[in-house]
Amino acid sequence: MTAENRKFDGFFRPLWRLIGCRSAWMLLGWLHAPATVQAAEVYIVDTLKHERSITVAEALNEHCLPCRPVKYMDMKGSVRVGRQISYELAQLRQNNALDLVITLGKPATRMISRELQDVPIFYSLGRSEMDDTRYSKGVVSLVVPPSPKLKLQALKALAPNIERVGFLATRHRLDDIREPTVLAAQELGLQIKFYYVQRPYDVPVGLRTAIQEMDAIVFIKDRVAINADTVEYILQLTLENQVPTLVDSDRLVDRGMLAALTIDPKRLGEKLGKAIEHYLETGTPPDLSDDPTLFQLLVNQETLRQTPDVTGGAPAGVKMVMR
């Protein structure tokens, strides 16, 4: 395995410079792991290294005692590099030097699961659905999207006086969340309405209607409703009408949407580390669902100032981060 693949920028950097990446991981594991914990060979394969995935890996290494040191490998978004990593992991498996793989992102998951049929693979930091069953067999998905209830709680915490919440997306995407959303709204005393669009051209009419009828709007991930052709119009209209909005993307918050409910990478790494430690001890696959502490509520400060009805904070257990 090349030193470049194992390089872990930004984590104990002075130690890396002094003794090298691989030796540093081994020393950290020796310093922190108690003698009574049996070590496991755990690898992280990242689709493309970025700040969020590095944070997850650092926290996972810190909180999974038998995993230390966790070995980090970066695909760099390259199929060629992914194949090389898959080959290296297969060789490690043949030598009984591989116990578990954590894949970050769907491309890494597909690539690694194609080669490693008898190694536990935990998939995180990606979409919740794995649409290609050829490569999903044996993969444990630890992708945890926020529930409709938590989204409504987040909006209610931000804007305590809202009573009516609209959801704008295609019928297919809204039907996927209809039942839990209706139940959550009833529990929280909110009225909800779904606004269906079939193509981007339908967004202006649906959005204007939703703004007239609703106190706040939730935009779920939907390429028809929110894309490069519609996002500027959505931003302009919601900001002009001072309508609180909740989305799934931090990038949209940076563009001007009020808030997004996203995974907190540090908390995810902590929970992953503890869950994997439990799995190594018991063989029971982890379940990270229904844990609000895994999430952070990102809020655009400028939009917050322009939206008078937004006076609150975040739901209990959810960290609020101003952008």
Number of helices: 14
What's the end-to-end separation, in Å? 39 Å
Point out poorly predicted stretches. 1-37
Number of DSSP E strands: 12
Helix/strand order = HHHEHEHEHEHEHEHEHEHEHEHEHE
Radius of gyration: 22 Å
- Strand order in the largest sheet: 7-6-8-9-10-11-12
Helix content: 40-55%
Mean pLDDT across all amino acids: 86
Overall form: elongated
Which structural class do you get from the secondary structure elements? Answer: alpha/beta
What does it look like?
The chain has 323 residues and is of the alpha/beta class. The protein contains 14 helices and 12 strands. Strands 7-6-8-9-10-11-12 form a 7-stranded mixed beta sheet, sandwiched between helices. Helix 5 (79-94) crosses helix 6 and helix 8 (148-158) crosses helix 9. It is elongated and about 65 Å long. The model is unreliable at 1-37 (pLDDT under 50).
In short:
It contains 14 helices and twelve strands.
Describe how the helices and strands are arranged.
Elements (H helix, E strand, L loop, with lengths): L2 H4 L6 H7 L1 H12 L9 E5 L4 H13 L7 E4 L4 H16 L5 E5 L1 H10 L5 E4 L8 H4 L2 E3 L6 H11 L5 E6 L1 H18 L2 E6 L6 H11 L2 E3 L12 H10 L4 E3 L2 H6 L3 E5 L1 H18 L12 E5 L1 H5 L13 E4 L1
